[in-house]
Every structure is written in C-alpha cells, then in structure tokens.
Protein 1
Amino acid sequence: MGSLGAARKVLVERITKETKVQVALSLDGGKLDLLPRDNEFPSSFPKQDSEHHASQNSSSQQIWIWTGVGFLDHMLHALAKHAGWSLRIRTLGDLAIDDHHTTEDTFLGLGQAYSKALGDRKGLQRFGDAHAPLDEAVGRAVIDISSRPFFVGDFGFKNEKIGDLTAQMIHHGLQSFSQTAGVTLHVDVLKGDNDHHRAEAAFKALAVASKKATAHVVGKEGEVISTKGVL
C-alpha cells in the first residue's frame, strides 16, 4: 500500500469489555465485502444488505453504518460520503450506561483503519483543508497526515445533545480518531444557529479536507512528503 493505484482497503476489529467494533474502509471507494460474523451481534441489528438511515450504495461507494446511536451514524455517513470512501461500521456498545464508550471506540477503530489503509504514507498530498456550508452554518477543517496525533476542535454547540448523541462526544470522538489515525487535525465551526447544521458542516469539511490530503501526487510516488524524510 502507499503507491499510486494500490488498493487502500482494510478491515479492523476493536474488541474490549465495553464495546465490539468492526470497521471496513476503502479510502478510494468501490466494493467492500460484508463485515464478518453476523452471529456475534444482536438479531435486532439490521442486515448488512438492508437499507436504513445510514446506508447508501452506488457504483462508486458502499456505505453501511450501525452504532446504535442514530446521530453518530448520520455524521459518519456524511464523512464517508463526502470523503469518497466506502465504509462499513458495526458497533455493539454499552449504551445502557451512556454513549461515551460507543462513540469513543468507534472513532478509535475508524482511526486505526484510516492509518492502516494509508500504508507507508508515501506520495500523498499530506495536507488538506476545506470549508463546507450547511444552510446558515459553515464548518472548517485542516488536516496533516503527519504521524503526529493532535486535535483542536471548537464547535460552539448550544445544547447538551444532538439527537441521541451527547454533543461533547463529537469533540472527544474526533480527538480519538486523530490519535489512532496519526494525524494533526483542526476542526471548527465558523457560524451557525442550529447544532445539527453545525455538526454536519464540520464533518463535511473534514471529509473534503481528508480527500485532498489522502490523494496521491503524480510524480511523487515513493517519496516521503517531509523534510525529515519520514512520517
């Protein structure tokens, strides 16, 4: 992985006493195999070939996400769609307690998959930035595929919850993603009155910034995009 045209497709599983997370990711879209071992998840979970609030299939992308937290599914769906990924996520979490471990571990698993899919990180654009509007809201994201995990976020949410997701878990989730993905990440919301719009604008901005940063630079194949000579 890491060379122009190589498949950037991975499966990651993260299992703890609190959660079971499966993530299948293709950074360049396309076909993804179904997640394994359906029998280890509750029968109440939707089938992977079913349509639900966070699933979408086209010739270029396959997206299917189920965490048990609807608004989290919605944000991950937006992230995958606008980043050009194919993405399958299935999380069984301790939602009887709250949404903390489910959100945190889902983002940790996604970050692990992202890092693994990037491979040796050679020949990448490395840096990406984007603005994305949603009606009155504008999100901004800047990413550096640096192998130096760092996150700064400023969302300005007004309410404790957005749908069934605790609002502060968006900050913590993206911080968790940056740690396992090995990226420097800044995400903020410049304006917006509606918390749903603010969150979605932020995730869409991140998606576009990531798509730029993970693109291969023609003519730079095999090169490390760093003065240090290593990422």
Protein 2
Amino acid sequence: MPRIESANGLPLATYRARFLPSCLDPTSPNARAQGPYSISFDSSSSIRAAELEACLELIASSSAKAYAASGIGWSVVKKRKEMKLPDLRYLLLKNATDRIQGLLSFMLTYEDGHEVVYCYELHLSPSAQRQGIGKHLMGLVETVGKSAGVEKSMLTVFTENETALMFYERLGYSRDDYSPQPRKMRNGTVKMPTHLILSKSLQGPSTDGKELEGDEAA
C-alpha cells in the first residue's frame, strides 16, 4: 500500500506512537509560566463535537473576515465540512480547565504529485500567543512529516496576514512553486493573489531559523 494511504489508515494510537513524540505539551518557559497548557491528539472522527465547534469558533474569530475578503469566501457550513475530512488530524491546545485555546489541523496527503504534510489551520487564542506555542505546534507537524518520510510541509496563508507570513518565513517556509502568481488583467492592471502557498523541505538539515517571540499565525 502507498505510504500516505498506509499512514492514514493507522489507528489513532498507532499513528501517534509512530509519528509523534511521547510528550506533546509545550515546554517553553513562557508557556509554562502562562499555562499550564496541554496538547491532545485527535482525528476528525475522534474529536468531540463540542471541541470541534470550539475550534470552528476560534477559526471564525481570527480569520472569517480574511476568508470573506478573499476568493475563497467564508462559509461556516463548508468549513465545518472541511474539518471533518477523514484523514484530518488535530493537535488541540487546552488550558488547565480543559478549554480549547488553540488548534493545528493537518493531513498527510498529496499535493501536485508530492507526498506532503499539509497544515490546514493554525490558530491560537490571544491569551496563548507570544509564548512559543505556535512554533512548537509547527514543530510537531514537521515531526509527523519527517517520521512519515514525506518530502515537505505545506500550508496556505492569506497575503494580508503579514504577521503570519513573517512567522512562517522565520520557520524556514518560502513560497511554493505552485503558489498562485500575480495576474495581469486585460486593462493592464496586475491582480495580486489573496493567498499564498508556502512550503518547507523536510529532507536534509533543519532550517528552523531564529527563535521566535510571537505566534500570531494565520
């Protein structure tokens, strides 16, 4: 069986044991001081309905306007349907009272013929930002990709989200060859893309860049 299909077919516990470290919780001094925080691992079929809705609310509060302003558009119904894709996995950040404070959803998949780990969403509540948690979550996803043997890590980011672009660039991400390009219209004006596709090779030496102070990602 192909590598991607084999990995996505694993039971949740086996998937975690094979591709993730035993401890998922953030360990930066700031996260420990502001927390305590814990990170749980779920799939689209195992995540509790209330937690899925909490994640949806967090996505809407931070990105609904950007979705609406882009060519993608914002739809709660469509986003909820996407969040239930069979092969989607979740890293859920929770505080001491077990409330959702952040999420990263991702999938081992194919993109333009390449085996990749694709980050679908990364969102943190304001109280969980600037503590190194965003970098920690991205590191976990990259660990999944490296453990699974895929070529690269990929994600989509809105061009207007300059903070997120800087965040990902400092983690070693750059514009992918398949990212949307500016388009020249018939009247001569140039229409810039509303979103970019970024990627980072997971083969060879790490290119994490400098230590980050912020986590305000897309």
Protein 3
Amino acid sequence: MISVATAGGTVTSYSPRFSLSGMTGTFPQPVIDGLKTIQGTQGPSDVNTVKDAKNNPADAGPAGPFNVDYRSQTGLTKYAPSQPIPPTKITAKSATPLYPTSAVVYAKTWLPVPSQVTTFTQSGTFSVSSRENTASPAAKPSDDMQKFLGRWKD
C-alpha cells in the first residue's frame, strides 16, 4: 500500500508473505531460484520517504514510481501521476496538453499477450475546506414600487 503524506513524501508498506496450497502448474526457473532465497514470512521493510521530504524540501513533490514517465515504464504494473489541482482563476488563452501524446500504431498481425496487468494512479494530496456564510441576507423591498424597480437591478 502506498500512502501519501500531507507534508510531502510517501510511505510504502508491504504485507507479510503467505503460501497457497493445492495449486497446480509450474513456475519459470528464475521464479524457483528467487523463491529459494526467501526465508520466513516477514515481508520487506516499509519504505518511508516522508522523513526525506522534510530534510530536503526541494524534493518534497510526488515521490517514487509516479515520477517516472508513463511511456518509459515497463513491467506488470505502471504508475500514473495524479491530475493537478485546478486553479482558482482561468488565465490560459488556449488549451495545452498536460502530458505529451503518444503515437497510434494499428496492428496488422496478431499481437502478443499484454504484459501490463494494472495501473496505479497517484492519490490526490489536497483537501477542501468550507465554512458557513455568516452575512445577513439583503432586506426585502417594503412597497410595490420598490418591488417593481428591483426586478431590473443587477
């Protein structure tokens, strides 16, 4: 699980290892060799980059695999950055893409089995707060002429 801290940085926590029984099938040799090196059921140690973000505020932005360009990632899992927080005022005169586009190549033959299994999208790291409007409402017109003229007020 990857948790994002409000102070910057992330904490990646791993669960303990477990075993399955009654399964059939085979593993490739590299997996069998890797399994021989594992001892016990304790998972990897947590990876805490929050303390690093406090020591180095310049690097306190999104950390870990979310910094790697999506198109450069390989493997079963890909990591996508989160959508940026929208501004409170629109100043742009034309729309520009946040990330570069990718080329489209149409298949002319059968494609291999996809190697990507899942994509993790970075969690939003902002919060929204609101409060009660304590201003008193505007007074209502008291006579008919004020009501009539009030129809065209902007």
